[in-house]
């Protein structure tokens, strides 16, 4: 037998085209039986078929391969399940004929309690504890439910049939097209899916209530939840309908499926999962109680629903080839969820709250132990490690930076063109580059393939701004990273906004045309609206002008937040004296914006703790200084 063990990826001499999957879960015994017939294209000479399977019992006598244009049936001479590599190796006595054939496999498995693969969750109904059966296949756990080519690039269509207790609700990616009751069981058949990756396949079996609505073009949308909680799904339902319509326009592609179900699961490891047409959620991420839930819960439901529905296009329709591009899948959905939420609920000013995503990404990526957002994945076991704040938050932030630099309209047009082709995610830069004329690939490679980010130092001298970049580390140490930095700045007014790419270590920019005024009102703010993923360090003259602008309320809350956060980070990294930070904090005495005030309070607490350890004799003066800052807010 050829050695397929230890290989990070499946061989490509056989490619799946269609799965016909039948499953029979036993919710009492917590196990399931199943059979799958897979239309496979043999594209290179081989006597092996290698696919993924894990924690399944394969019946060797049920395995066969039948070529499309032949009556001959090939039975494998050896069936080996390699558990450490989660692969199923089928060894045939002779080479399989090229072209299409059907691979049939019978199997059994366990409804596990680990919230991955095909697993069991528990709920109460009329005081009685019951099991439901749920799937969670991302990143690589469809193989625990049925033998398959469990990699994103091996897309296929899926025809699913479930045999379940007749009193239960059984959902899958597609609408039900047939239901046949046979005593205590019923057989539920679903419409065949469009092509999709295995990690997006889903089925759920249990007892549920639902609320329902339709989009303007007739897409049926439902929110399922435990019996008695249906009213808590109303808010998510409203958000979902409006979000589907918004994304249809934004991506210039209709929602690809005939229905969308969203379901709250009591035991769920992630926040939510974007299964095509059947999105699963933690209850706290989908349900909202008008009487008892906090406003923060309402915003969380809106942003999580918008995030998962973005994936119905970006991730499900257009899919990463391999998990290396996970960050783009998740970072994009995170960014566009704020775009959608801001459109639906402009009164929330959600982009100001996006600063929490940005600053968390900056904080983590300033550590020496950070990693690039684009990580080489050599084995499925490594994938879970990159579902982190660098992938989601830094990823979302650099997408926002690119969109801001290219311009909202240019970015949207490029994205719509990209969506219309059978693309993988690495083609996005090429589509945006073609539409904008900007060096998008070269630019983004500096942000995705190396860890960290720059601090951009700026000085005002002889009617010129002198820019210099260096790698920022929160420890204060020096790094040798260099980036193509999309610089935006404005002088004295948001109407006077300029942008350029800082492509070298240092560069000058002539600003005398609109910054000739030498008094303090001629403030200059870099990284307008904090759309760039970098810190800014101002010389003393520019810092004084910004303090004046803050005191006189010339700057947006987002920019006030950014100046404060950058100064605190630079102070902690010993690139700025504490006196400079304290002087800046004094300019926020009349601050009333919640997000800015929240950051100011947090910084005050941290500075106070440090000062108490370093100079305890000054604490009375420092405490009085902080009291003076917050007195106005208290009034």
Automatic annotation (TrEMBL):
GO terms for cellular component: cytoplasm; extracellular space; membrane. Residues 235-447 form the Peptidase M1 membrane alanine aminopeptidase domain. SUPFAM superfamilies: Leukotriene A4 hydrolase N-terminal domain, Metalloproteases ('zincins'), catalytic domain. Keywords: Aminopeptidase, Endoplasmic reticulum, Hydrolase, Metal-binding, Metalloprotease, Microsome, Protease, Zinc. The active site is at 308 (proton acceptor). Its main location: membrane. The keyword Protease applies. One of its GO terms (molecular function) is metalloaminopeptidase activity. InterPro entries: Aminopeptidase_N-like_N (IPR045357), Aminopeptidase_N-like_N_sf (IPR042097), ERAP1-like_C_dom (IPR024571), M1_APN-typ (IPR034016), Peptidase_M1 (IPR001930), Peptidase_M1_aminopeptidases (IPR050344), Peptidase_M1_dom (IPR014782), Peptidase_M4/M1_CTD_sf (IPR027268). Zn(2+) binds at residues 307, 311, 330. The keyword RNA-binding does not apply. The record marks 392 as: Transition state stabilizer. It is a peripheral membrane protein. Binds 1 zinc ion per subunit. Its cofactor is Zn(2+). GO terms for biological process: peptide catabolic process; proteolysis. It is found in: Microsome membrane. Belongs to the peptidase M1 family. This is Alpha-aminoacylpeptide hydrolase. It comes from Gossypium australe. The lineage of its organism: Eukaryota, Viridiplantae, Streptophyta, Embryophyta, Tracheophyta.
């Amino acid at each position: 037998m050829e050695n397929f063990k230890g290989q990070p990826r499946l061989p490509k001499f056989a490619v799946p085209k269609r799965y016909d999957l039948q499953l029979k879960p036993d919710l009492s015994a917590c196990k399931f039986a199943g059979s799958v017939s897979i239309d496979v294209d043999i594209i290179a000479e081989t006597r092996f078929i290698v696919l993924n399977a894990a924690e399944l019992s394969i019946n060797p006598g049920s395995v066969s391969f039948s070529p499309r244009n032949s009556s001959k049936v090939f039975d494998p001479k050896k069936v080996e399940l390699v558990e450490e590599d989660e692969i199923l190796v089928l060894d045939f006595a002779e080479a399989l004929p090229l072209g299409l054939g059907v691979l049939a496999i019978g199997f059994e498995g366990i409804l596990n309690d680990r919230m991955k693969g095909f697993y069991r969750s528990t709920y109460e109904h009329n005081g009685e504890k019951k099991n439901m059966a749920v799937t969670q296949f991302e990143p690589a756990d469809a193989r625990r439910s049925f033998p398959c080519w469990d990699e994103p690039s091996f897309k296929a269509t899926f025809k699913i049939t479930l045999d379940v207790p007749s009193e239960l609700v059984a959902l899958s990616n597609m609408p039900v097209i047939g239901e046949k009751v046979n005593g205590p069981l019923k057989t539920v058949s679903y419409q065949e899916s469009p092509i999709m990756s295995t990690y997006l396949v889903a089925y759920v079996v249990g007892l549920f209530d639902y609320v329902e609505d339709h989009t303007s073009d007739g897409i049926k949308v439902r929110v399922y939840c435990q019996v008695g909680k249906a009213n808590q799904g109303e808010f998510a339902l409203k958000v979902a309908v409006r979000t589907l319509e918004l994304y249809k326009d934004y991506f210039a592609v209709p929602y690809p499926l005939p229905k969308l179900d969203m379901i709250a699961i009591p035991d769920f490891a992630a926040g939510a999962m974007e299964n095509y047409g059947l999105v699963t959620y933690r209850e706290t991420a989908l349900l909202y109680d008008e009487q008892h839930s906090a406003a923060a819960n309402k915003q969380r439901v809106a942003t999580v629903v918008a995030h998962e529905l973005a994936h119905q296009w970006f991730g499900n329709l257009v899919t990463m080839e391999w998990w290396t591009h996970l960050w783009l899948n998740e970072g994009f959905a995170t960014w566009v969820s704020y775009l959608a939420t801001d459109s639906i609920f402009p009164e929330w000013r959600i982009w100001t709250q996006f600063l929490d995503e940005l600053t968390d990404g900056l904080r983590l990526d300033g550590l020496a132990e950070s990693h690039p957002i684009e990580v080489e994945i050599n084995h499925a076991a490594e994938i879970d490690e990159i579902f982190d704040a660098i992938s989601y938050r830094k990823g979302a932030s650099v997408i926002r930076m690119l969109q801001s630099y290219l311009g909202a309209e240019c970015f949207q047009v490029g994205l719509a063109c990209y969506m219309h082709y059978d693309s993988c995610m690495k083609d996005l830069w090429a589509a945006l580059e073609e539409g904008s004329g900007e060096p998008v690939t070269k630019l983004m490679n500096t942000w995705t393939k190396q860890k960290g980010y720059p601090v951009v130092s700026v000085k005002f001298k002889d009617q010129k701004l002198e820019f210099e970049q260096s790698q920022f580390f929160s420890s204060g140490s020096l790094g040798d990273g260099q980036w193509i930095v999309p610089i935006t700045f404005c002088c004295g007014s948001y109407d006077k906004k300029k942008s350029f790419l800082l492509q070298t270590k240092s560069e000058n920019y002539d600003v005398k045309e609109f910054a000739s005024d030498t008094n303090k009102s001629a403030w200059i703010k870099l990284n307008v609206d904090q759309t760039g993923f970098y810190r800014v360090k101002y010389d003393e003259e520019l810092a004084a002008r910004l303090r004046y602008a803050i005191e006189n309320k010339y700057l947006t809350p987002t920019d006030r937040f950014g100046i404060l956060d950058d100064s605190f980070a630079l102070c902690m990294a010993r690139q700025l004296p504490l006196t400079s930070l304290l002087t800046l904090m004094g300019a926020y005495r009349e601050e009333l914006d919640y997000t800015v005030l929240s950051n100011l309070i947090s910084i005050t607490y941290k500075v106070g703790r440090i000062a108490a350890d370093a100079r305890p004799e000054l604490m009375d003066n420092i405490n009085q200084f902080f009291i003076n800052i917050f007195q106005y807010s208290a009034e």
